[in-house]
UniProtKB/TrEMBL annotation:
TetR is the repressor of the tetracycline resistance element; its N-terminal region forms a helix-turn-helix structure and binds DNA. Binding of tetracycline to TetR reduces the repressor affinity for the tetracycline resistance gene (tetA) promoter operator sites. One of its GO terms (molecular function) is transcription cis-regulatory region binding. Residues 32-51 bind DNA. SUPFAM superfamilies: Homeodomain-like (SSF46689), Tetracyclin repressor-like, C-terminal domain (SSF48498). This is TetR family transcriptional regulator.
Length: 216
C-alpha cells in the first residue's frame, strides 16, 4: 500500500512557532513572510490566510513568549504574586533574548498577551491601588524587568561590542570605578535583579494610593 505523508495544516500557532524558532536562531531581522514560508514549506502568500502582515507576526511573537509565563497562582500576598510574575517573565526573556526588543518597543495587543496585563492589573487593584496607580505600577515593573533583561541578555554582534578598559584609567581620578572593576567578573546579575525587584516591591508597598481593597 502506498503511503502518503500528510503535511501538518497551516495555522497561526504553527506560523508563530516557526517564527520564534527563526528569531531564536537568527534574530528579529530575519523575519519576513518569504523566510517564514520557506521554513514552513509553503508559499509566502498562504501565510496571509492566518496572519495579515508582519506586524501581526511580531505581536504574535510577543504573545508566544508571554505564554511561557505560568498563569497566576493563588499567592499569599500581592507582593509575592507580582514578584513571581516578574521572575517568570525574566526567565522567558532569558530563554528568548532575541525577542527582547519587542518587549522594549511594543505593547500587548493580542488577547493572549492582554490576559497577562489583566492579571497584573487585577492583582494591583485588589491590593488597593487606584486604576491610574495600578497602570503606573505595571508600567514601572515591566520597564524594570525588560530593561534589566536587555542589559543582561540582549545579544550583540561581535563587531558592535565595546570593552571598557576601566583598569587603565587613572586610579586617582576614578577610585570607585577601579573598585568595581575588580569585582565585575564575579558580579551576579541575578542577585542584582532580585535586589532591584525587592526595592520596587518595597516602594510599591509604601505607595499612599494603596489604602483600601478594590470593590468587585
Amino acid at each position: 500500500m502506498k503511503q502518503t505523508n500528510k503535511r501538518e495544516p497551516l495555522s497561526r500557532e504553527r506560523i508563530l512557532s516557526a517564527a520564534l524558532d527563526i528569531v531564536d536562531r537568527e534574530g528579529l531581522e530575519a523575519i519576513s513572510m518569504r523566510r517564514l514560508g520557506q521554513a514552513l514549506g509553503v508559499e509566502a502568500m498562504s501565510l496571509y490566510n492566518h496572519v495579515p502582515n508582519k506586524a501581526a507576526i511580531l505581536d504574535g511573537l510577543f504573545e508566544t513568549v508571554l505564554a511561557e509565563v505560568p498563569s497566576a497562582k493563588r499567592a499569599g500576598t500581592w507582593q509575592v504574586a507580582l514578584r513571581e510574575r516578574a521572575q517568570a517573565l525574566r526567565k522567558a526573556l532569558r530563554t528568548h533574548p532575541n525577542t527582547l526588543p519587542l518587549f522594549a518597543t511594543r505593547a500587548a495587543v493580542t488577547p493572549g498577551a492582554i490576559a497577562h496585563v489583566e492579571a497584573v492589573l487585577d492583582t494591583l487593584r485588589n491590593a488597593g491601588f487606584s486604576p491610574d496607580e495600578a497602570l503606573s505600577a505595571l508600567q514601572v515593573l515591566m520597564a524594570f524587568v525588560v530593561g534589566h533583561s536587555l542589559s543582561s541578555y540582549a545579544p550583540q554582534p561581535d563587531d558592535a561590542r565595546s570593552h571598557p578598559a576601566y583598569q587603565q584609567l587613572n586610579e586617582k581620578d576614578f577610585p570607585r570605578v577601579h573598585e568595581i572593576a575588580r569585582v565585575l567578573d564575579s558580579h551576579d546579575v541575578e542577585k542584582e535583579f532580585e535586589l532591584g525587584l525587592e526595592a520596587m516591591m518595597t516602594g510599591l508597598e509604601a505607595n499612599p494610593a494603596r489604602r483600601k481593597p478594590a470593590r468587585k
